[in-house]
Amino acid sequence: MSIGDKAGSGDGEYERGLCVQQLAVAYSGVPAVRGISLDVKAGEAVGLIGPNGAGKSSTLLGIMGAIARTGRVLVHGQDVAGLPPEKVVRRGVALVPEGRHVFAELSVADNLRLGAVARRDRAGYSEAMEHVLTLFPILRDFGHRQAGLLSGGQQQQLAIGRALMSDPDILLLDEPSLGLSPTAVDTVFEALDVIRAAGKAVLVVEQRAEFTIAFCDRTFVLHDGEITLTLKPEDAEKVDVLTKAYFG
Ligand SMILES: Nc1ncnc2c1ncn2[C@@H]1O[C@H](COP(=O)(O)OP(=O)(O)O)[C@@H](O)[C@H]1O
Ligand SMILES: [Mg+2]
């Protein structure tokens, strides 16, 4: 029985995590995402890879309710149809957008505080802050520094930390490795591993195919708005062949 069936029956115990069914997005009638379905369960990391323009960002924005979509998005088995992004955040979903978008003029600490605005549970604020500062010690060291002065890797840590301040169960990330040094990429993915192990559901969009396939429990290849392939970690070694076959 799928999560969707359960959601309809109202019989209680839903599987924790994200379930996307037949998600479609179009811009002025031009399809960008053509009916894709995927699950991310609590404690799993799922990858979504594909070339520029494949529809990766549109998928994440569609899930958040930031752009018009069709299909169903279930959060812990509950349909979030019609909810604007801020309400989707309150259901426990957070997006780390492409390009990070930290508030450059504000301090690191204030960026993190802003992330807490969407918290469902105000009481857990201090714990959440401590958790983020333990996960990313550089954010503690640089708490008073202007966010715009951080390196790209540090800003990515801040963007993830800010998303975690809303206490999400489901974390969506749009190309977190973009423009980062190899060391910074390692730092980010080590943190994602900790976040996954803590029982959160992680959906990560990437262009770095091999790295993502190796890291994630499952990785979907998106091509022109459709999922064309599902890969397991052991497929990472075959990626040269896959890249040629599926990215052209
Ligand atoms: N705001 C927009 N208006 C019109 N077309 C868009 C917009 N955003 C994305 N697109 C188009 O939708 C398709 C998918 O884009 P996107 O989801 O950004 O892909 P990806 O993140 O995989 O690079 C592309 O053809 C892109 O040009
Ligand atoms: Mg994109």
From TrEMBL:
GO terms for biological process: L-amino acid transport. Gene3D superfamilies: P-loop containing nucleotide triphosphate hydrolases. Residues 18-248 form the ABC transporter domain. GO terms for molecular function: ATP binding; ATP hydrolysis activity; branched-chain amino acid transmembrane transporter activity. Keywords: Amino-acid transport, ATP-binding, Nucleotide-binding, Transport. Belongs to the ABC transporter superfamily. This is Unannotated protein. It comes from freshwater metagenome.
